[in-house]
Write a structure and sequence with these properties.
Strand content: 5-15%
Oligomer: single chain
Order of helices and strands: HEHEH
Distance between the termini: 45 Å
CATH class of the domain at 21-87: Alpha Beta
Structural class: mainly alpha
CATH superfamily of the domain at 21-87: Vaccinia Virus protein VP39
């Protein structure tokens, strides 16, 4: 087996709202999304965790739908997604019900 991509582990900035035990590096998800989708596509992550896929999707002008059952990770996801949306001048209304 050979490593094709050299991407460091998630940095401190990526974990500033909290940590997920299997959090992937943002650069990895961005590379995967670029190679397999086009702008405005919808990306579904059924095990969203802390929503690195969602952050990458927003950064790359894709739409995102994610599912997560752990409240702790949902809260981290909301903070991360809101920050990414603010950086990209998007607006969103989160419904926590």
């Amino acid at each position: 087996m050979k490593t094709v991509w050299t991407i460091p582990a998630p940095n401190r900035e990526e974990k500033k709202f909290g940590k997920h035990p299997t959090q992937k590096p943002l650069k990895l998800l961005e590379r995967i999304i670029i190679s397999s989708t086009k702008e405005s596509d919808i990306i579904f992550d059924p095990f969203a965790g802390s929503s690195t896929t969602g952050v990458a999707a927003i950064n790359l002008n894709r739409r995102f739908v994610g599912c997560e059952i752990e409240n702790t990770y949902i809260e981290i996801s909301i903070l991360r997604l809101k920050e990414s949306l603010e950086k990209h001048k998007h607006k969103i209304n989160f419904n926590m019900e």
